[in-house]
Every structure is written in C-alpha cells, then in structure tokens.
Design brief:
This protein is mainly alpha-helical. The protein has helices at about 5-15, 20-30, 35-45, 55-75, 85-100, 115-130, and strands at about 105-110, 110, 145, 155.
Length: about 160
C-alpha cells in the first residue's frame, strides 16, 4: 500500500464528522493522541494538494508536529546517538512554525493561532533556558490542540 493510500485509510478510520477537511481534523486527532508523526503525515497529504493561502498555514502546523516528533523521540531515548540530539532541531521547527503561522493571527480555520504561537514560544524558551539539555515535553504534560466552536479554540 502506498503512503497516500495509508493516509487515506487512516483519515477514514478517524470518523471526524466535521465541516473541515478530514485531513485537517485528522491532524488534531492524531496530535492529541501524541501521534505526532501521523499528524504530520495526515496534514502533509492535504498540504501537498493546497495551492491557496492555507498552504503556508498547513506547513506551519506540519512543522509544529515535527517539533514534537523530535521532542518525543528524545524523551524516549535520551542516550541514543541520534535521538539524544533532537532538542535543537525541535527548537528550529518551533521557530519555523511560528514564522509560517504568524500571518494567520488571531484565528484561522477555527484554530486559535495566538495560543499555538504561545505554545511554540514556551517550548523554545524552556529549551533555551536549559541550554538545550532538558526536554520540556513529557507524555503526562503533552499539549492538546482543539478546534473551537464558533471561532474559538483551546491549546492545553
């Protein structure tokens, strides 16, 4: 099965039941289940097809998920030769996510972009203050992104 087919099957299994594109909704479902790599893949599927202004927005969310892939892998294997060095790449992806999401302030597609940018900033600051020695992510304190009702959303 090709990657696109796998993504379509994953999205179909999520039962989003929303007015948004199922890939967009699927991103949030996967992200909130700490399946950051899958969140990245699901939204990338939509991003590759998008040619309008949401293209940059989706790219920023993909970068956000990518940053969490790095943090999660580093958390799981901090002594590993490769995974142990993922904190700086995570910081860079948080920065790229900020750059790509900022034009969509304050909200876009029912997401509180301001809250997502704050999430990026908090993680970047925590990494900087630790000298890139302490991972701010843990499964117990993982963030959650929720699409809002009538234009509001939450980042927890």
């Amino acid at each position: 099965m090709k990657k696109g087919q796998k993504i379509e099957a994953l999205v179909a299994s999520l039962n989003t039941g929303s007015t948004h594109d199922p890939c967009y909704e699927g991103f949030f479902i996967c992200f909130n289940e700490q399946k950051y790599y899958e969140a990245h893949d699901v939204l990338e599927h939509l991003w590759l097809e998008e040619k309008g202004s949401p293209h940059q927005f989706f790219k920023g969310l993909i970068q956000l998920a990518g940053a969490y892939v790095h943090l999660q892998k580093q958390y799981r294997r901090p002594e590993h030769a490769t995974d142990g060095r993922r904190l700086r790449p995570a910081w860079r992806l948080f920065r790229l996510a900020q750059t790509n999401l900022s034009p969509f302030l304050p909200t876009f597609l029912d997401l509180d972009v301001r809250a997502v940018l704050e999430l990026c900033s908090c993680n970047m600051l925590a990494l900087e203050e630790s000298g890139f020695q302490i991972n701010p992510w843990s499964p117990a304190a993982a963030p959650s992104l929720d699409l809002g009702v009538e234009g509001t959303s939450n980042v927890r």
